[in-house]
Structures
1.
Amino acid sequence: MRTSDLIDLDAGTLSRESFASEDIFRRELENVFVPSWSYVGHTSQLAKNGDFFLSRVGVEQVIVSRGNDGAINVLLNSCRHRGMPACRYDTGNMQSFTCSYHGWTYGLDGALTGVPKFQSRYQGKLDRDKWGLIKARVTVYYGSIWATFDDAQPSFEDYLGPDMQFYLRALMQGADGEDDGYEVIGGIVKWQVPCNWKFGAENFAGDHYHGYSHRSVERLSVGLSGKTSRHNFANVKVARQPMSVADPKRGHTIRASVYASLAPYDEQEAASDEVNAYYRKCHEERERRLGDKARLLIHGGVIFPNTHFNSAGRTTIGLWLPQSAGRTEVWRWLFVPKNAPNAVKDTLREYYLRYAGPAGMVEQDDMENWTAAQAGTQGVIARKHPFNYQLAMGLERPSRPGEWLGDEVSITEDVTEHNQRHFYAHWARLVAGAQ
Ligand code: FES
Ligand SMILES: [Fe+2]
């Protein structure tokens, strides 16, 4: 398969087969998902030694555990004997994982510690050092946990590249700009959507264009305060420049805005005096910590290929987990500032629930679109005609010296499909087997 079978960069088009073909889906698993670093969770989910939870890397289930030495392990949840999950609980605290089929037992670090009939029938010869759970390489980045099973991958920091390092660090800062300032609240929200994983990914990567879909919900007061519409940041009375920022070499994308000046705090935004007082203090702290960079507002983006995030009002990280060409499982972690009063945490939780996820009024619109768009890839006639990604083609530019949006990024201001073009260009290179 050639890259040009999938994408035409000059024309700004992408084949519908990219969303419909099970053959391309299998190539994605091999060429896109295995050679990547994946977000698997957050350190606040592992407060004590022995804490663990299940997560995913691509289609594979993993155990994320904190060992008795405090180190974080990411283990393929597949018993080395016959492949049963070694752990069948979503989350908990344990000293070991015993497979429910024949009873092989593994430590928190994946070491094979117990084998029934080890002396009598294996005659003490089974090499337990060789038959532990498969371990991933792990990196903790400002509280977020990342894993890869691909030894050929560069370090996580090199995989991110210098510019995405800056954005991910900024994403993981609390509302007051403190590094690693968040904790996960309420576990992981999980649901399925009957569409290809890339419909979600490209929407989060850079779709500033689909406000049309959300016009009905725009009329409701679903915002953080429950008194204004969903985009609280639009209430700030300082000019704001929306940007699409992409790393062409690595496929990462950011949606962000830069305010013209450090924005005065707007008292209309918060839900109560207590919440308002908290955010006013955060605003001052953030300016003190970040200086001019406090003008940056990250709306969301994608760390290639399927880790997505949202901030601007609420901070979430999620995964588009591929199930088949036409089915995706979505996992979503909601973060709250760990030092915030409970009133703030409740405000954010309630905001998330009415906004996002399977019951959220905004994301329901998106999922309905993606489901119907997936159906639009199925017809024999329809499949012959590519999708159009020409919006604002030719308007992109490299970052300017001193702009601090990144050194290796490409930028387009305002509404564009610039980020989607870069996401798919990198994706198509990998699917075709090129680097
Ligand atoms: S499958 Fe796990 S012990 Fe046999
Ligand atoms: Fe949307």
2.
Amino acid sequence: MSWVTQLARPEVLRLAPYEHAAFGGPRTRLHANESPWRLGGDGSQAGLNRYPEPQSPPLRERLAQLYDVRPEQLLISRGSDEAIDLLVRAFCRPAEDAVLICPPTFGMYAVSAQIQGAALVSVPLRAEAGFALNVPAVVDAAAAARLLFLCSPNNPTGNLLDADEILRLADRLAGRALVVVDEAYIEFAGRASLAAQIPRRPNLAVLRTLSKAHGLAGARLGTLIADPEVIALVRKLIAPYAVPQLVIEAVSRLLSGDRPVQRASRIATLCAERERLSGALAASPLIARVHPSAANFLLLECRDADAVLARAHGAGLLLRDVRGHAALPWGVRVSIGTPQENDALLGALR
Ligand SMILES: Cc1ncc(COP(=O)(O)O)c(C=O)c1O
């Protein structure tokens, strides 16, 4: 019995997934109860009268190239939010299994665990050490967990977690838990993805998204990268035609051509703006500290968070109040905008 079979929910292992209509070949489709006619004005390639092919093989191939992994290691999801939810549903039995998180961190891990009825084990990041992982405490607490969600760079603190610590953790938990590293912001960190380690460490998984550095949040396209056995398991749970045809076509088009050059230049601008904004905000009397960030946002330690939020709001700018996190009673998170937008924020807080 493989470790995936031992960790997965037995109900999911037993599940016979929905059998979607077959795809491929030039045959006439009289098997899916679709309309035989395109709607006038339907400019899509495939025709929106047809269901999209699940896990579009050309898009999967394209994403595999982008992330430098094999297509069998990859599941396309509606944003990484959906992949988080699918992982929890695949591995955690309600009222029996647990998800481990390291707060303050991205909120969807806890939400998905709660929806599933899984227990939540929290091992806070070490605020005094730049929000680093508390490795011994994670190892102790992980005994109860099937899934660990580690976010690097972490939202909302902005710091990278130590890659060696994550890998050692995966080694310690081999066969006992899946260590999921959420790399939603990795493109802004100038660091390699941990996805390359998955063939050697099959209990490691990585989440990537097109919502941040790729500028495609509206497309809702995320990718789970994992051992092919994990992918096959999670694929049993995803809705049969999850990713719409319009998204498949738009994303395939937008990931090609000279856009990688545009993307690289925008990432460089954003990182330069992050450093400029960080230095300038630190000089504001309303702000005690700007935390170092490897992402496209900054965590502000405010002397008066209400005043920061109100001043920004008065200038037509929305910031994120993150004081709800126990470790961040002073926290406001600001996304890096265009140089003009960042200037507007500086003007408001001066
Ligand atoms: C760490 C992290 N993971 C995942 C997501 C969700 O990304 P997606 O748009 O791919 O669902 C976010 C969104 O803010 C995030 O901050």
